[in-house]
């Protein structure tokens, strides 16, 4: 594992690829095979929901014995499903924006603290993922009840943001820790002010960390069940809450239909985004 | 974004205040109770004086899913239309939320669907006594209308078996659930931590030789010892959906499940058959939390819920059993055989001592949960 | 204006002058997160922590109940053990995968990223339910095993089943930080290492592994800590005798309305995890001290 073959990005100097030895090619092949297995394990299980969503019975037995599209009709004719999907997207996007901005700022502040302050602050910021969420959920319900935040968009975004913050701070901090400080110093020596350094050097270099933090934030919000269960109202109910109710109370393949549509929509979004990014890279070269 | 910090700072102050308010025991958060005239004369189930609740807002809460949809469509929304009440719904029922509302003296749920054992145990604590001058419970099955609750619907915990698995033999009752020689294979039963209800413990004691009339007070330790004898043949389900799926996938050869789930599984083609002999009747309850804004309105809704027409409609919409003794819902043969409130079925049921359960449920839950985790 | 603030690791140079003023400004970067945390996390938590010591009476009865109950202590130990297994499984699977992401071309990278992210977008509830369907005794996995003359193997309702489900759900949390850090590693160091005659394995152990350690640590931290709080997946894939601490807390809080006990259990998990974090932070710092000098 040594010869670098990719040399994109500003951090790495262009180094010509070393000639490949056969042994190395075998190693690379093994690596691909292993990663393919991991990828299969990651992706395949979720695909079960696709055939399941076309079952003709009100049953989650697999494989289905007959086929229909009635669960898709059900999804669109039952306003609670469509509305909960929309609520989840709204809450998720707002949470992503707030958590990414606030979390990145906190990570930048964190990186500049002394070691003891770092430990302390890090502990406090990690607390939301350490404390079992049910404990916080009941306390949140009591407070939200008082301040009429139950079932409100700000209430949801605030509660989810707190849960998402650690998932932004951890990868951003990791990227900052791996940052070559000499680049910042060099920029400063060249006369760049603090904001310019932040904008032109630091942020682009930790961009992968911020991006994965943003993704984690969205997914944290999009998947959150326990607190949402406590702060929801029938007028603002996120998708996982709707699913939780459905799974515990009904046997309803509408869940599979909803999941299939989410899968299709997000896959196409990610594919389109990747294609655009790829083309940009090609143009840039 | 630029305004965020100031709002947050304000909210932080509010949160601190809230903690203080909670510690002090809360203050009234809502307006004065509305003046309600429900009319003169004795109450009649299934009726409400038209427009008696004009401009009253009420929230009905149940466990969500298809059953709550049926409750809303069949009963609660028509009630709103007739009485003029503005109906809101919420759910699923969480007991912790009821406690938080009552303790904060800020009750937003006016009528709640809960488990009946739980509601009997909370009578006078979190729940208020019902006013039977407004509620007509004369047609409710015997013993089901209690100081703080009326039934919301009936069902059963029933033993079911795969009729393709045992040759010609058919299990006859609880004893056969424990007979792994004559009826080999995996058995499923409820195994959710933090809950325990009439059903499997009674079955274990009957299988161990206790006469049905001598079941109470339940010897929980003895029941768990009996369950231990087949522990390695047992699998547990935690949600109704999971139990239904176990029947449909053929993972188990026998199972104790809720009757509604057995019906749904069989309707989907599962080759299972219930054993009605000594089944355990169950019910969900309608309750009113203490400190509700207008108790009269809650009572009026409950009275309407108990009407015969309403109950027939509910069964037709949800396939759960009606709680009006004269109700004759129009349902197919299969579902008819799963109705637990007919006189013939009632004769096959064991008698559950609700009062014992109400008093001892927390202790049973602890023992059962510990047994499960051990 | 100098920006070389104090480095994150004590192994490096002493803090430059002018720290106090900058400390203030760094504090302001921190403020929004702190305020949010206080209002929407600490305040609700405080409500429950107070309960832990006052519900039903003032005193330590909830804590003595917990430590006096062998079942509760067992569940706590099981929770930490399960979290550790999940973390190790994720690390072993994610490390080669993330490495591959850093050495392939743009197309390969896009595909690999896509494959990590797609399951990520499918709801956790749905993925867990999919595992129930796959892992059950009559499920697809056992069908496949049966085709090769193996099985049936009991997967669902075992710790193995729980670990399979949880690792799959948490794997992206390991891959992404690992990739983010590996991508930033200066490849010339590897060149230098092999140029000086080091074998690939030596280069890996002495150079690559230490440099990728922040990513591994970040990923492991996220996976481990998330595992501790998992509720839905162990509830659906496990059985009562694989129950984790969140399920027990749910029982106390929502089933039995014992908020004091629930709060106490929360406090216990929090304290134990903080101790563990402090210990691992110390260990990491020790490791960090042995980093190659070329970087700092």
Keywords:
heterotrimer; A: 285 residues; mainly alpha; MetI-like fold; 2 domains; 13 helices; 75% helix; globular; B: 374 residues; alpha/beta; D-Maltodextrin-Binding Protein, domain 2
Q: How would you portray this structure in words?
A:
The complex is a heterotrimer of chains A (285), B (374) and C (296). Chain A has 285 residues and is mostly helical. Chain A has 13 helices and no strands. In chain A, helix 3 crosses helix 13 (254-284). With 374 residues, chain B is α/β, with parallel strands linked by helices. Chain B has helices spanning 4-24, 65-83, 95-103, 116-121, 174-177, 200-207, 220-228, 240-249, 259-267, 295-305, 308-318, 333-337, 343-348, 354-373, and strands at residues 57-61, 86-90, 111-115, 150-162, 187-190, 234-237, 254-258, 272-287. With 296 residues, chain C is an all-alpha fold. Chain C has a domain at 71-226: Orthogonal Bundle (MetI-like fold), CATH 1.10.3720.10. Helices cover 76% and strands 0% of the residues of chain C. Chain C contains twelve helices and no strands. The radius of gyration of chain C is 23 Å and the shape is globular. The chains are: A mainly alpha (285), B alpha/beta (374), C mainly alpha (296). Chains in contact: A-B, A-C, B-C. Chains B and C meet through helix 1, helix 3, helix 8 and helix 14 of B and helix 1, helix 3 and helix 11 of C.
Report the principal-axis shape of chain B. globular
Identify the CATH architecture of the largest domain in chain A.
Orthogonal Bundle
| Number of contiguous helices of chain B | 14
Number of beta-strand segments of chain B = 8
The overall average pLDDT of chain B, rounded, is 89
Q: Main β-sheet of chain A: number of strands, strand sense, barrel status? A: none
């Amino acid at each position: 594992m040594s010869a670098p073959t990719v040399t994109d990005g500003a951090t790495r100097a262009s180094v010509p690829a070393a000639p490949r030895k056969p042994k190395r090619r075998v190693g690379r092949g093994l690596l691909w095979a292993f990663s393919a297995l991991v990828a299969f394990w990651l992706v395949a299980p979720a695909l079960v929901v696709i055939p399941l969503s076309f079952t003709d019975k009100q049953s989650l037995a697999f494989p289905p014995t007959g086929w229909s599209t009635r669960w898709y009709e059900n999804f669109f004719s039952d306003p609670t499903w469509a509305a909960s999907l929309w609520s989840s997207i709204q809450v998720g996007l707002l949470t992503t924006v707030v958590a990414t901005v606030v979390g990145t700022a906190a990570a930048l502040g964190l990186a500049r603290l002394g070691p003891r302050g770092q430990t302390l602050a890090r502990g406090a910021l990690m607390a939301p993922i350490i404390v079992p969420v049910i404990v916080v959920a009941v306390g949140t319900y009591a407070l939200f009840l008082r301040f009429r935040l139950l079932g409100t968009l700000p209430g949801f975004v605030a509660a989810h943001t707190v849960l998402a913050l650690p998932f932004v701070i951890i990868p951003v901090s990791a990227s900052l820790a791996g940052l070559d400080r000499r680049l910042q110093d060099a920029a400063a020596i060249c006369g760049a002010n603090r904001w310019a350094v932040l904008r032109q050097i630091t942020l682009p270099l930790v961009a992968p960390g911020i991006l994965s933090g943003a993704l984690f934030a969205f997914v944290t919000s999009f998947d959150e069940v326990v607190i949402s269960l406590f702060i929801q109202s029938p007028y603002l109910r996120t998708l996982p809450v709707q699913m939780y109710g459905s799974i515990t109370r009904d046997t309803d393949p509408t869940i599979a239909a909803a999941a299939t549509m989410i899968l299709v929509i997000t896959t196409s979004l990610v594919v389109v985004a990747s294609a655009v990014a790829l083309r940009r890279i090609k143009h840039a070269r | 974004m630029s305004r965020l910090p100031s709002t947050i700072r304000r909210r932080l102050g509010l949160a601190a205040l809230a903690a203080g308010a909670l510690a002090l025991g809360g203050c009234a958060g809502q307006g004065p109770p509305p003046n309600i005239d429900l009319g003169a004369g004795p109450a009649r189930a299934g009726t409400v004086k038209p427009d008696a609740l004009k401009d009253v807002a009420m929230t009905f809460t149940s466990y969500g899913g298809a059953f709550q949809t049926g409750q809303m469509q069949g009963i609660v929304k028509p009630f709103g239309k007739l009485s003029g009440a503005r109906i809101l719904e919420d759910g699923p029922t969480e007991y912790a939320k009821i406690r938080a509302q009552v303790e904060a003296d800020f009750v937003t749920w006016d009528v709640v669907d809960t488990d009946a054992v739980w509601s009997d145990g909370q009578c006078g604590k979190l729940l208020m006594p019902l006013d039977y001058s407004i509620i007509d419970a004369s047609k409710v099955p015997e013993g089901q209308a209690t100081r703080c609750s009326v039934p919301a619907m009936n069902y059963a915990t029933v033993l079911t078996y795969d009729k393709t698995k045992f040759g010609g033999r058919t299990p006859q009752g609880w004893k056969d659930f424990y007979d792994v020689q004559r009826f080999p294979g995996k058995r499923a039963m409820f195994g959710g931590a933090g809950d325990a209800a009439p059903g499997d413990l009674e079955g274990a004691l009957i299988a161990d030789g206790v006469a049905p009339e001598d079941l109470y007070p339940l010897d929980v330790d003895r029941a768990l010892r009996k369950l231990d004898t087949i522990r390695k043949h047992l699998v547990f389900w935690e949600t109704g959906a999971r139990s239904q799926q176990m029947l449909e996938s053929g993972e188990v050869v026998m199972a104790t499940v809720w009757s509604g789930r057995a019906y749904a599984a069989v309707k989907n083609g599962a080759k299972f058959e219930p054993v009605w002999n000594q089944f355990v009747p169950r019910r969900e309850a309608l309750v009113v939390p203490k400190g509700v804004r207008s108790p009269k309105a809650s009572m009026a809704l409950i009275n309407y819920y108990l009407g015969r027409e309403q109950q027939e409609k509910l069964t037709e919409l949800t396939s759960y059993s009606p709680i009006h003794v004269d109700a004759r819902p129009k349902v197919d043969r299969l579902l008819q055989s799963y109705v637990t409130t007919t006189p013939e079925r009632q004769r096959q049921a064991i008698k559950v001592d609700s009062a014992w359960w109400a008093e001892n449920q927390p202790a049973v839950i602890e023992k059962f949960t510990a047994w499960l985790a051990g | 204006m100098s920006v070389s603030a104090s480095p994150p690791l004590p192994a490096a140079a002493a803090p430059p002058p002018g720290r106090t003023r900058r400390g203030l400004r760094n504090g302001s970067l921190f403020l929004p997160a702190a305020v949010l945390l206080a209002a929407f996390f600490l305040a609700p938590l405080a409500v429950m922590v107070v309960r832990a010591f006052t519900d039903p009476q003032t005193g330590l009865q909830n804590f003595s109940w917990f430590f006096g109950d062998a079942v509760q202590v067992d569940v706590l130990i099981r929770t930490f053990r399960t979290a550790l297994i999940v973390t190790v499984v994720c690390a072993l699977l994610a490390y080669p995968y993330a490495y591959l992401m850093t050495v392939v071309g743009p197309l390969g990278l896009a595909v690999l990223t896509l494959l990590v992210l797609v399951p990520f977008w499918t709801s956790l509830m749905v993925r867990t339910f999919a595992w129930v369907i796959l892992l059950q005794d009559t499920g697809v996995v056992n069908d496949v095993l049966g085709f090769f003359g193996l099985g049936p193997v009991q997967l669902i309702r075992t710790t193995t089943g729980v670990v399979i489900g949880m690792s799959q759900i948490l794997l992206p949390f390991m891959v992404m930080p690992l990739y983010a850090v590996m991508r930033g590693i200066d490849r010339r160091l590897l060149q230098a290492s092999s140029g000086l005659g080091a074998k690939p394995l030596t280069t890996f152990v002495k150079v690559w592994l230490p440099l990728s350690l922040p990513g591994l640590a970040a990923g492991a931290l996220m996976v481990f800590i998330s595992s501790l709080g998992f509720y839905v997946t162990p509830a659906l894939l496990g059985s009562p005798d694989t129950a984790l601490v969140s399920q027990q807390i749910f029982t106390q809080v929502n089933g039995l309305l014992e908020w004091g006990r629930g709060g106490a259990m929360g406090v216990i998990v929090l304290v134990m995890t903080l101790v563990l974090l402090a210990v691992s932070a110390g260990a990491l710092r020790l490791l960090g001290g042995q980093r190659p000098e070329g970087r700092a």
